[in-house]
Amino acid sequence: MELEIGKALIKDGLEDLYEYSEVDVLIAGAGPSGLTSAKYLADKGFKVVVYERKLSFGGGIGGGGNLIPKIVIQEEAIPVAEDFKLRYKKAGQGLYTIDPPELIAKLAVGALDAGAKIILGAYVHDVIVRYDPNRIIGVLWNWSAVELANLHVDPIYTQSKALVDATGHGAEIVCIAAQKNPELNIKLEGERSNWSEVSEKLVVEYTGKVAEGLYVTGIAVCAVYGLPRMGPIFGGMLLSGKKLAEVIEKDLK
Length: 253
Hints:
A hairpin with a 4-residue loop joins strand 7 (about 120-130) and strand 8 (about 135-145). The termini are far apart. By secondary structure, the protein is of the alpha/beta class. The protein has a single domain (about 1-250), classed as 3-Layer(bba) Sandwich (FAD/NAD(P)-binding domain), CATH 3.50.50.60. It has nine helices and eleven strands.
């Protein structure tokens, strides 16, 4: 039986990696904006893969607000919450609360049921760039365990029509692209201090294309464009993810 277990893991696991070595959309980061984008894009028929460097999804959702087990969304995000069948409770003027585990679980289920593929324990090591015209066509990626063990193991490739940075505060993918490829003319402004009511609007407004083939969503938007962070409110993350799906659909179709 052990032999059959091993064969099943290797065969089906490697078949998945092969199948998703070329995709329409590659999303780095399985946080709120990344999972929201994944669902809406997969719903539209795009082949979507999400790489998450941890062995779990949800990004910053799990800690709630300072480990208090609630997260907040605003009224504008209710339609997204309903698309994911989330239960919410009115908590103030235009504000609602949701349990973090429910938000994590239903965002992931929504993306998976729509047809997106989520690969855990994988991180983007570098981007693949082509010139004339300048564009990003995919990534080099590796297993997070390799990084933690400080081993020299060459990454492998995944090709994409659209690469999404949903990595959060560090905007890791945009940073890599900017530092290694000045021809892309990407400038990172750095995240500014908290101003929730302003940032919740601006993060959605600035969501979109950074360079040909490269997009940004969620809190990573703040790091790229010098926007204030928003604190423990997640409506802007959901709305940013939905908007990005609309932007990418327009660009790819």
